[in-house]
Amino acid sequence: MSYTKEQESIVLKVLSYKPHQFYEILQVEKSASDSEIKKSYRKLAIKLHPDKNPHPRSSEAFKYLNKAWGVLSDESKKRIYDQTGSDPDSRFAGYDNSEASASGVDPRMFNSPFGGGFGGGGYGGGGSLDEELFNLFFGGAGRGGQTFTFGNNGFTFQTFGNGPSHQHPFFTSNGGRTRRAERQRQRTQQPENVSVLDTIKQLAPLLLFLLVPIFSAIFSDNSSPEYSFNKTSVYNSERSTPRYKVPYYVSKDFERNKDMTKKQIRQFGLKVENQYISDKRSRCTREQTIKNEMIEDAHGWFFTDEEKLQQAQELPMPNCEALRNLNLI
């Protein structure tokens, strides 16, 4: 597929920069605001997207662009990049390879897939693989050099041969694995010391959860009549709530009940009303969430789907409308 001179020019311009020259790739100044960076990204994305630009290297340039956007749109990554000038996603960002060589560290260590490093603090965990790697770079026992022994409580620095052993001043050692094994034995033996009272305390929340509904059913007042918001064969006597005049239906036994005072009838009506409003608010919230998601989906990166937007705007919201009729929203 053929491409225009302008399409080729924008691709080659992006690829002319180094992968970490993020401001140059996005064609913005270092002092650019977040909105300016976002605006420039969208403009370039349209020109570089492989679906829009048939140049054979447009996909590569688009990856450069997305990488730059991923760093400059993230506040923490952007701060690191501005301070170091290095890709914040790479390991040992800002660490100069020449400095590493001068200090005796193999620069190939920067690409180690095992994480960690001097700046990242990745050797505090104490795995055997970490020990082997660390001893590999700093001299192991087998070569008569120095070695680090890791444990959950710290590490011991030892020199084999004529040199003394050194213990890190902020950690205790004496064999991290031995202490870890001791703690495991203590956890294994702990259930033997658990008393009956402790067991009851642990089960108390579960017992409370099971017993409360039972006692509520036993001691609750079952004289309150039931109701329905829809007319049925059982609930066919219409009433309305005291404040908002919400219609609801009760059984004929409710009408015949001479023991209920006016105050009790009003309290019952308020209970029905509060239940109605609570239910409508919950359903209205879900309706509004669905509508917002539809509107957001209609606004794409490159264009707005007018048909989807119209469907979202015309979405029926009966529960919200019911609350609106009661002047509650």
From TrEMBL:
It is found in: Membrane. GO terms for biological process: cellular response to misfolded protein. One of its GO terms (molecular function) is Hsp70 protein binding. Keywords: Membrane, Transmembrane, Transmembrane helix. It is a single-pass membrane protein. Gene3D superfamilies: DnaJ domain. Residues 21-85 form the J domain. Residues 172-193 are annotated as: Disordered. It holds the Pfam family DUF1977. CDD domains: DnaJ. One of its GO terms (cellular component) is endoplasmic reticulum membrane. This is J domain-containing protein. The lineage of its organism: Eukaryota, Fungi, Dikarya, Ascomycota, Saccharomycotina.
